[in-house]
From TrEMBL:
<dbReference type="Pfam" id="PF05076">
    <property type="entry name" value="SUFU"/>
</dbReference>
<protein>
    <submittedName>
        <fullName>Suppressor of fused</fullName>
    </submittedName>
</protein>
<dbReference type="InterPro" id="IPR020941">
    <property type="entry name" value="SUFU-like_domain"/>
</dbReference>
<dbReference type="GO" id="GO:0005634">
    <property type="term" value="C:nucleus"/>
</dbReference>
<dbReference type="InterPro" id="IPR016591">
    <property type="entry name" value="Suppressor_of_fused_euk"/>
</dbReference>
<dbReference type="InterPro" id="IPR024314">
    <property type="entry name" value="SUFU_C"/>
</dbReference>
<dbReference type="InterPro" id="IPR037181">
    <property type="entry name" value="SUFU_N"/>
</dbReference>
<dbReference type="Pfam" id="PF12470">
    <property type="entry name" value="SUFU_C"/>
</dbReference>
<dbReference type="InterPro" id="IPR038489">
    <property type="entry name" value="SUFU_C_sf"/>
</dbReference>
<feature type="domain" description="Suppressor of fused-like">
    <location>
        <begin position="63"/>
        <end position="240"/>
    </location>
</feature>
<dbReference type="InterPro" id="IPR007768">
    <property type="entry name" value="Suppressor_of_fused"/>
</dbReference>
<dbReference type="GO" id="GO:0005737">
    <property type="term" value="C:cytoplasm"/>
</dbReference>
<feature type="domain" description="Suppressor of fused C-terminal">
    <location>
        <begin position="254"/>
        <end position="429"/>
    </location>
</feature>
Length: 434
């Protein structure tokens, strides 16, 4: 279930940009590819043949990398508006380049998405000692593209990815990703549909956590305020040692106020977790496990949320009303639990821990959430491997108090189990697997 509430973050999202329509498409190239090349040529008219990473064996021929090409442009920046020189990477392959069905389904609707409807970009601050663009961003792009092709989940500005290592393989503090709109590449009409450009932005752990606990668009606006954290074009500096909190400590209070008044627009993650029904008569239990995946937040409108939830519910047929539930989470997921309660449940929303493989799913819901399976007298309901857990308002203060140990820096010994016997609920927080 990939969804996000947008009603509280509309002020953070920029107004839609005009569409750029390609009036001339060279006949020597596939039409979709030529349209994107023409867009790039208008921005970089003096770089008709940029350095390019290409796949040796194309994806439709059985190759492992979905992106046919990744172009690397030399952007001189603009000192007048505080834009430093940087390398600009642009992908080709998430959208439909060929229009003949070899990769994407054929579409004759120019107003619909081309392929997945977007391409990736990345802006990397130039290192004076490196006269040519490094190629590691191409590997990051290919990895993200593989995720999209595997899951079908598209990326939007405000989405995030938990990467857990330096994006360039170094000891850099920037070990996670936040997605933004590319400031130069406009939504483009191609012969095979519309293409957006989603820019990769390197962020540190504290900034990723702010996204998870509040929202991506809000954090993007904060990052844009300082050249240290990327400036208005969100240029990634892999040598950056300061977080946005180091640059401006008042951001702590700004985000805390945002969580209190707006809640969080993160509605689900993938993580290591499981649930089981505890059999109070015997020792038997039924356990459902999940594999650890990167955390990705897909942006959707509230209407999309309702439609997607209804669609998933309709695919499942058999309900089980359970009496006594035990939930288990890895530490990374567990550290989010207090913010799930504060930023989601207290604001009348839901939150889901889900595996992309279709195994166990746990959804916490507030009493005001419509279309769920739970009720006051049946707080635990499972459909297949999907468990719904109702958290009534009267229980939130008690639960938050019990979970106060989930703060950073984390010093508790694990595993640690919290029991609420009057609620027939228990939660275990497990250490991360090495």
């Amino acid at each position: 279930m990939n969804e996000t509430d947008h009603q509280n973050v509309g002020h953070c999202i920029r107004s839609p940009r005009p569409l750029s329509e390609v009036s001339y498409i060279p006949q020597t190239l596939p039409a979709g590819l030529a349209a994107l090349y023409m867009l790039c040529k208008r921005i970089y008219p003096d770089q008709c043949n940029p350095l390019q990473a290409t796949t040796v064996l194309k994806y439709w021929l059985g190759g492992p990398d979905p992106l046919d090409y990744i172009s690397m442009y030399n952007n001189p920046g603009d000192r007048m508006i505080g834009i430093p020189p940087h390398w600009h990477y642009i992908s080709f392959g998430l959208s439909d380049l060929h229009g003949d069905g070899r990769v994407h389904n054929i579409s004759n609707d120019q107003n619909g998405p081309s392929g997945f409807g977007f391409e990736l970009s990345f802006r990397l601050l130039k290192d004076p000692s490196d006269p040519s663009p490094p190629t590691w961003p191409a590997r990051v792009m290919q990895t993200l593209a593989k995720y999209v092709f595997k899951t079908g989940n598209t990326l939007y500005a405000g989405d995030h990815v938990s990467w857990h290592c330096g994006l360039d393989g170094s000891e850099s503090r920037l070990q996670h990703i936040l997605m933004a709109e590319d400031p130069q590449l406009q939504v483009t009409v191609t012969p095979h549909g519309l293409v957006r450009f989603v820019q990769i932005v390197g962020v540190c752990l504290e900034e990723l956590q702010a996204v998870q606990r509040w929202n991506g668009p809000g954090v993007l606006q904060i990052l844009k305020r300082s050249s240290v954290t990327g400036g208005s074009w969100l240029i990634t500096n892999m040598r950056r040692g300061e977080s946005m909190f180091d640059v401006d400590p008042s951001v702590h209070d700004e985000i805390a106020d945002g969580i209190k008044t707006e809640g969080s627009n993160l509605c689900g993650i993938s993580a290591i977790c499981s649930w089981e029904e505890i059999n109070t008569i015997g020792d038997d239990s039924v356990e459902h496990s999940m594999q650890k995946l990167q955390i990705i937040n897909n942006s959707r409108t509230s209407n999309d949320d309702a439609n997607e939830t209804d669609g998933e519910l309709s695919e499942l047929t058999q309900k089980q009303f359970l009496e006594n539930i035990h939930l288990s989470f890895n530490l990374e997921a567990g550290l989010l639990l207090p913010f799930v309660l504060k930023g989601r449940i207290r604001h009348g929303r839901h939150f889901t821990f889900k595996g992309a493989t279709g195994n166990a799913t746990i959804t916490f819901v507030a009493p005001s959430v419509a279309g769920t399976l739970v009720s006051d007298d049946k707080p635990f309901v499972a459909q297949g491997s999907w468990l719904h857990v109702l958290l009534p308002n009267s229980f939130l203060d008690i639960m938050e108090s019990s979970l106060k140990f989930l703060h950073e820096p984390f010093t508790e010994s694990l595993p640690k189990t919290i029991n609420w016997p009057d609620r027939n609920l228990s939660i275990t927080i497990n250490p991360e697997k090495s």
